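Entry for the shared binder. Reason: the reviewer on the internal report wants the predicted structure included alongside the sequence.
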Amino acid sequence: MAMSMRGNKPHILVADVSMYRFLHSRFFANYIRHVAFVSSA
């Protein structure tokens, strides 16, 4: 994350965005699973 702040390198920026999207989608999937479990319980 800190590397993209130092220099605006396109490939590093893309890597940060893809990592963010991966982590966000994983968190979102866990959240959906949690909500579905709670609502069904």
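Summary line for the report: The CA atoms of residues 6 and 22 lie 23 Å apart.
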